[in-house]
Amino acid sequence: MSLFSSSSPAPAAGPASEVKEVTAATFMQEVIEASRDAAIVVDFWAPWCGPCKTLGPILEKTVAETKGAVRMVKINIDEPANQQLAAQLRIQSIPTVYAFLDGRPVDMFQGALPESQVKQWIKRIADAVGPTDASLVELLAEAKTALGGNDFETAASLYAAALQSDPTNVEALVGLGRCLLNVGDIEQARAVLAQIPADQAKTPDVVALKTALDLAEQTAGASGETAALQAKLAQNPNDHQARFDLAMALYGAGDKEGAINQLLDLFKRDRNWNDSAARKQLVQFFEALGFTDPLSVAGRKSLSTLMFS
Predict the structure, then answer these.
(1) Considering 99, 129, 159, which residue would you say is the last residue of a domain?
(2) CA-to-CA distance for 278 and 5, rounded, in angstroms?
């Protein structure tokens, strides 16, 4: 099946994302990293704060009108885990609202401003981002949803359409590369990776795609060895090389969870085997999947538990 089938039209773009509740644990991903693609407005609030309840809906409405040029998240400073973050940003009263762009804070205000002033402030932030093609934002959002649902044909069509508007859009290039990788077209995925500007090569999503491609090439053809390796482990569960090879074979066969579990088992049995090969390979798996992928999150938690047990 071709990823770029022209027999059916691309689906209409979906609605804008809802405002997220962010914590100190997700601040780096949802604010610092995300602000490289759009301005991120952070509303620091608490459930008991009356002015916060007045300001919040005004902010949400005004941000939505930017069509993706500005996005909004909320952080509840009553949560103990968020209090240190609030202290680092020197928040002494709420509501306090920060705007982040390109990984750093660029503006802020305190108190419940009138709607007219909120609109002026958001407009100033949106103008700092520059002109945004609303249709491009919607295409990328819909493509991300399709990719997350493993609908690689639809996602690839949408990413390709986005690249017609912006040929150097890194999110679209990475997304298209992921689609090609998932259908086994490693050569084309490499070609797409090569189009990413050099100054973006170290960003997390680009590094993750490169690592995933490296692993796909490394494990190509290994899936046929799973039965033999499982038989070897049945005879000798402490055959560490067989367990490591089985993890790689499972990864190549698409069983990412099984591959992670085999390496966790190996690490538990002998964490120092072959110069900590199990831990190093796990880190590569997590990087390839993306550190926010549910399998990575669960795997990293299990590895951390084993390391400190």
Answers:
(1) 129
(2) 41
Cα separation of 160 and 172, whole Å? 7
Residue with tokens 């459930």: 47
Q: Assess if residue 14 is contained within a domain.
A: no
With a CB cutoff of 8 Å and minimum separation 6, the contacts of 258 are 247, 250
Token duo for residue 299: 């795997």
User: Cis omega before residue 9 (within 30°)?
Assistant: no
**Joined tokens for residue 29:** 């991903």
Q: For 241-296, how does the pLDDT look when each residue is reduced to its tens digit (9 = 90+)? A: 999 999 999 999 889 999 999 999 999 999 999 999 999 999 999 999 887 789 99
Helices within the chain (DSSP H only):
27, 50-64, 80-88, 115-129, 134-148, 152-165, 170-182, 186-194, 204-218, 226-235, 240-252, 256-269, 273-289, 294-307
Alpha carbons within 13 A on the beta-carbon side of 1: 11
115 and 139 both lie in a single domain: no
- pTM value surpassing 0.70: no
CATH number at residue 191: 1.25.40.10
Dihedral sign for Cα atoms in the order 213, 218, 223, 226: negative
Based on the domain organization, do 230 and 289 belong to the same domain?
Answer: yes
Active site residues: 49, 52
Residues 6+ apart with CB under 8 A from 301: none
* DSSP type of residue 174: H
Buried b (16+ CB within 10 A) or exposed e, 163-186: beeeeebbbbbbbbbbbbbbeebb
Closest CA to 104 of 34, 54, 203, 189: 34
pLDDT in tens, 77-100: 999 989 888 888 888 889 999 999
